[in-house]
Every structure is written in structure tokens, then in C-alpha cells.
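User: Fold this; C-alpha cells only.

Assistant: Input:
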Amino acid sequence: MAWKGSKMQTERSYWQPLLVLYKLARLIKATCKRLYIRNRNPLHSLRIFYIRATRPHNLRIEASSKCQLHCSGCRTGDGSNKTGNVGWGHLRFKNLKELIDHNPGVKEIELSNWGEMFLNPDLLRIMQYGYEKKIRFTANNGTNFNNATEEIIEGLVKYRFHSFRVSIDGATNPTYQTFRRGGNLDRVSINIERVNHYKGVYHSRFPIMTWIFIVFAKP
């Protein structure tokens, strides 16, 4: 019986790669058939299939490489990134629109990295266009959320910005400002309250906000 079991396992291992290839071939055939029915051109159908299969679905783009704070140890805060590879500027709406229009397979874009996303003057238009194109925007690398207009705060909910993280390193302003130099905890708290207010107005769970907290050693 053990021998028969081993033989069956060997046969199963032998056929498994062929089964995967068979299923892949059927998927390609079905996809091309649907595209051909739509376009009536087999070469064009294959081109569309290739584009959809090889282009990216998720991207990370710096919405802003600028930051208004001067956090300890941060290359953006101390100005080092201004002359480096990161640079100092904002993502323009027209550039993002062109990117999305030329890459229809993209479904998710992360907008935070070195800088503060909320400093971008085109952010509202970016969120609106992403909502229209069914793009899931995130800023889960982190934001300080010190500077956000009422229009932007409402837009986060209205255009269903998916999620972002807020860096809050203290329960009082003196503690918070130990690291987030130039920031104001009271202002951040108000901005969070306003987001929650608009969530109630629009009956939405988005954006999902996550609190980031750096624990410091006691001096």
C-alpha cells in the first residue's frame, strides 16, 4: 500500500505542472476570445492582453517631497534631500493624470514617502480624479497631518481616500514637539476630529486612520 501511495504521489506531481499550464492556456484563450469579440482584431486583442499582464497594478509615488517640520534624524527635515536624489517639490496633477491614463491596470497608489502629502496644492484634484478612475489611494508610509484645509479634509472622505497613517509621538504638545519639531499636536487632533465629522456626514468608513507612535527612552 505504501508503494501504491508513493506511486500515486509521483503521478500527481508529474501531472500538476501540466495541469497548471493547461489552466493558464485556457485563461489566455478565454481572455483573447473576449477581447476579440470586443475588438474584432486578434493582433490587437493579444496586444491588450500583453499590456494588462505586464504593466504594474500598484505604485508608490511621492505626492510631495517637501515637509514643514524638522524632525530629528530626518533627511527631509534637515534639508539634506533638497540637493539629493529625492529633491524638493510636488507631484503635479497633470503628470499623475497622464500616468493613470496610460496605465489602466494601476489600481492602487501609495502617495507618501519622504515628504508631507498634505502640502501638495493639487491634492484635492488628485483625489477626485483617482476616485473617478477607481484608484485606491493610500498614505500608509505616514503623514504628520499638521496642515490640511477644510476642503482637503472633506475631500479625504468624499473621494474615499482609502487609508493613511498619522505620526503622533506624544500625548501633550511639549512631548510631541520633542521629535516633531515645528508641529502642533492640538492642530493634528482638530484635523482628525474633522475627518471623523465628515465620515458621519458621508456615512463612510474611509479614510482609515492609523496612529504611529515612536516610543522614546526616559531622559
